[in-house]
Design goal:
Length: about 80
Amino acid sequence: MKSQKRSSQKKIKAKFIFLGGFEFREKEIEADPGVRYSELLSSLGINPETVVVIRNDEPVPIDSEIVPGEVKVLRVISGG
């Protein structure tokens, strides 16, 4: 039932800019309402735990629902 509800609603359009060694620099995305950043990143082959999503110069929780507009996806590098 949930998937039927998603498919009947208008798609959300967002521009993703990828920073830090991704195979692509930017992508225009159309997602169903309710899709989370983590779900979308996983579908692109990106581990959500290795990135930070930034919107309006502020970090966004990875489990937030996608909203229209532009976001930056920044690869997190750690080491010692």
